[in-house]
Design a protein that fits this description.
25 helices; 9-stranded mixed β-sheet; alpha+beta
């Protein structure tokens, strides 16, 4: 902590603006997976595309190198100084000072503030950079033999194939002969690079030529962890005080002693590094997923969990480390404290999920390799089964195979993966987006344009610019024709940003068109409608009128999606991010990133906060600003919307500020009442809330009251006593059900000839007579105990729906691939199902397919396809 502050203060006192660390998610830079250097946030300053109020800056930048070009993930744990997460100290000059001052600053800080002895210091410069070599000798007094020259690979830096570039100078600390006898050129442990000074001196052109920059700049980088190791005189960054507290926390938690066992030491270093990376990534908004940044996060998480398992962990443990990181770094990085609970929850959920799949996958892997000899190869199909069924990343399987001296059939895995992608493409039904026809693109190319005036008025006198009927341009349309109409000026809001398109009507002296929707293909406002009266002609004028009632209800619901978003972030955490929305006059639907179902208490709090804001009747303020100004002012932009140079900014109180082109209420009080009608999951890590406002919300409450009144009459109990009365009835029902189940179980299991042999596997397959599908689970468990080793399928037709419960004994669960049998059953029964590796349930509407013969056939086909039994 002292080193970090000492560095920042040193440069602050020398005219540098102290800039806080930017997010690990690079802003506006599609070339980077994660922020991996201090200069990332200043990229546009170096290229001259951005101007700020300062020309010197200093930062301690959080960085992650675990994907893309810079990827140290697989080295972490095996070395004493590789990290996925680290802090990079840096000072920067944007056309201000250059080589001389950069070298002066570095020498002064290292010798006076960090306390290094000049006799232990060496410097490298680019082989032709005489200026830097002379300056080092002049400023530091280092003998020329300790100012070494290196080639382009080591001492020349480029931002890319083109753009700013220049020579660099690296500073090394000689740690003495105890670390080896190699030279500075060997890249060993003795001469350790501590700081790199980059002199951005040239611009590389597309033809390979380099021209001098008009304002040369400086970009430096020094790893805080490595600096600390050198200052604290330890040979291992994990033994610096900043990391040792985290490592010790895990060692105490897992009852291990660092330095006692080499394998344990590797695992403890992995946990120490990975918990920092995971905590900071989640704090900056990355969620575990199967693609992009989320996939890298999941890989880091699962690698840590697997090393925890090596230390004897049989259940969630990794999430405890969030507190270790927070205690060590929370004051400097408040996002850790603000998101602490959310970070722990996300890690815990991932641990629980992965421990379950890991156990079953490892059993399968053990079965497949138990007779392997050294150097034998695991087939690509098994590796893909681990990936597809058990969630094993390929690299995880590869590491396990490597540790045991086995190989992996990468090519075979790739074939299986491509086959799966082909199947996925064959079943793809499309995104649901309207295709933009060539016709509308041609109209835009011809110069046709429409202007939206609906922010200020719901009526407009407009000219008919074009009529489209059945995909073709026409001059006129008659009563009864369904058409698409383009006006020169239109008050109709086109569907966008989740808000549905406006409806209304067009009126002329002899014509009337009912508008049912408005869209925006190729940027044109197009109103869809049906001619109700007369003849519509291109070039004629009409009075365009938006359905006022529908628009008012829609705009209120749109405003409430913004208030809902802000409130979700307050109640659940800043990790909540909008993932989609639908705004209609009748209801609003809001999808958002969150890791688990909301509790009743959370839903109640969200409603309470929102309704309190409605009662306070906050004004809804919309302003038009430049995009840069809006973002700088704190406005949020979402899901990669295409924004123009000028944007509309929606602000409500001090709790909501977002970019939005939709239509909105003037005051929150217009909503009247806000009521959540449902909360559900729509995808892994994505939740959905459906809500109503105003009259719809009032009617919803009235319906709930009517239900209570009806229940009160039926149960002959006051409304306040309904919970107790229902609880009593449920207990009585459960007792009766238990008795009936026992009677049914006795009747179903009396026969001794139920056990069949299917392809060498003991099986019990039965269509049972039960009153409730809940009776199938205990029945299948009874049969499973009876056969000891095998598979049980018990089905029943209850209430016109076919249900099948499938159980597999534990010794076969890892190999049986129950999910694939479930898919076959689901297809046969026209339904769906799911479960765990040893238990699943399928339900469908095709009751005629529910026969013992069908179940026997599908089980036989499944066992044969596995090729596991002879």
């Amino acid at each position: 902590k002292e080193l970090r502050e000492s560095f920042l203060k040193f440069f602050e006192e020398r005219g540098h603006h102290r800039e806080r660390s930017s997010s690990l998610i690079p802003h506006n830079d599609p070339t980077l997976l994660f922020t991996n250097a201090g200069m990332n946030q200043f990229k546009d300053l170096f290229t001259g595309q951005e101007k700020r109020s300062y020309r010197r800056a200093t930062t301690s930048q959080k960085c992650v190198r675990a994907g893309g070009k810079h990827n140290d993930l697989e080295n972490v744990g095996f070395t004493k100084r590789h990290h996925t997460f680290f802090e990079m100290l840096g000072n920067f000059s944007f056309g201000d000072y250059f080589k001389e001052d950069a070298i002066k600053f570095a020498w002064e800080f290292l010798t006076k503030n960090a306390g290094f002895s000049p006799k232990d210091m060496w410097v490298s410069v680019f082989e032709t950079d005489n200026e830097a070599a002379d300056l080092w000798h002049k400023i530091s007094g280092l003998p020329k033999e300790r100012i070494v020259r290196m080639g382009e690979k080591d001492n020349f830096w480029s931002m890319g194939d083109t753009g700013p570039c220049g020579p660099c100078s690296e500073i090394y600390i000689d740690r003495g002969p105890s670390f080896g006898n190699e030279t500075i050129f060997d890249g060993g442990e003795r001469f350790l690079e501590v700081w790199n000074l980059v002199f951005m001196q040239f611009e590389k052109l597309a033809d390979g030529k380099m021209v001098p920059l008009p304002k040369p700049s400086v970009d430096t980088g020094m790893g805080l962890e490595r600096l600390a190791a050198l200052v604290q005189k330890v040979d291992n960054t994990y033994l610096t005080d900043g990391l040792q507290s985290i490592l010790t926390g895990y060692a105490n938690l897992l009852k291990k002693t660092y330095g006692k066992n080499a394998d344990d030491d590797v695992a403890l270093r992995v946990l120490t590094d990975h918990i920092r990376a995971v905590s900071f990534l989640i704090a900056d908004g990355v969620q575990p997923s199967n693609e992009g940044r989320g996939y890298v996060l999941r890989r880091i998480l699962r690698r840590a969990i697997r090393y925890g398992k090596k230390l004897g962990c049989e259940g969630p443990f990794f999430y405890h480390g969030v507190s270790f990181v927070e205690n060590e770094m929370g004051k400097v990085y408040p996002e850790l404290v603000q998101n602490s609970a959310a970070i722990k929850k996300i890690i815990l959920l991932e641990e629980e999920k992965f421990f379950e799949t890991l156990e079953n996958g490892l059993k399968l892997l053990e079965t497949k390799t138990k007779n392997f000899s050294k150097g034998e190869t695991l087939s690509g199909s098994v590796a893909f089964q681990l990936y597809d069924t058990y969630g094993f990343p390929l690299d995880l399987t590869e590491v396990i195979m490597k540790e045991q001296g086995f190989k992996l059939d990468q090519a075979g895995f790739d074939v299986e993966l491509e086959n799966q992608r082909t199947r996925s493409r064959a079943s793809w039904k499309g995104s649901g987006e309207r295709a933009v026809s060539t016709l509308y693109k041609d109209l835009v190319a011809e110069g046709l344009s429409s202007t939206f005036t609906g922010y200020k008025s719901l009526e407009e006198r407009a000219k008919i610019l074009a009529i489209v009927k059945k995909g073709e341009k026409v001059k006129t349309a008659q009563a009864g024709d369904e058409v698409e109409i383009i006006l020169d000026k239109t008050p109709f809001y086109a569907e966008g940003g989740g808000q549905v398109g406006d409806r209304g009507e067009l009126k002329g002296s002899t014509v009337r068109v009912m508008i049912s929707d408005t869209t925006k293909p190729a940027g044109l406002h197009v109103s869809l409608g049906k001619v109700a009266l007369g003849t519509l002609e291109v070039g004629s004028y009409v009075q365009a009128s938006v359905d006022r009632e529908t628009r008012l209800k829609t705009r209120i619901n749109h405003t409430m999606t913004h208030i809902l978003h802000a409130t979700l972030q307050e109640v659940l955490g800043s990790h909540v991010k909008q993932a989609g929305s639908l705004v209609t006059p009748d209801y609003l639907r809001f999808d958002f990133a969150h890791f688990q179902a909301l509790t009743k208490a959370e839903l109640a709090k969200i409603e309470r906060v929102i309704n309190d804001r409605i009662r306070k009747n906050y004004p809804v303020i919309t302003n038009e600003e430049t995009l840069d100004k809006a973002i700088a002012g704190g406005a949020k932009a979402f899901f990669e919307e295409k924004y123009g140079e000028h944007v509309r900014v929606l602000s409500v109180g001090d709790f909501s500020k977002e970019l939005c082109g939709g239509t909105h209420a003037e005051f929150l009080g217009e909503a009247g009442l806000f009521k959540i009608t449902s909360e559900s999951s729509v995808a892994s890590g994505v939740r959905r809330i459906v809500a109503v406002t105003g009259e719809k919300a009032y009617n919803y409450v009235l319906e709930e009251e009517k239900i209570l009144e009806t229940l009160s009459d039926l149960l002959k109990a006051p409304e306040k006593e309904l919970p107790a009365r229902v609880e009593k009835l449920m207990k009585e029902k459960a007792d009766l059900q238990k008795k009936l189940s026992q009677q049914s179980l006795g009747a179903q299991t009396s026969s001794e000839d139920l056990i069949k042999d299917i392809e060498g596997v003991k099986s019990i397959i039965q269509i049972a007579k039960v009153e409730d599908v809940k009776e199938l689970r205990p029945l299948s468990d009874h049969y499973k105990q009876k056969i000891k080793s095998g598979v049980v399928l018990v089905g029943a037709n209850v209430g016109g729906r076919a249900t099948v419960v499938v159980t597999v004994t534990d010794d076969l669960a890892a190999e049986f691939a129950l999910d694939k049998l479930v898919k076959s059953l689901s297809t046969s029964l026209d339904g769906k199902g799911g479960g765990k590796p040893n238990f699943a349930q399928v339900g469908g509407t095709n009751t005629s397919a529910l026969t013992e013969e069908t179940l026997v056939r599908l089980t036989t086909e499944h066992i044969r396809s596995l090729r596991l039994f002879s």
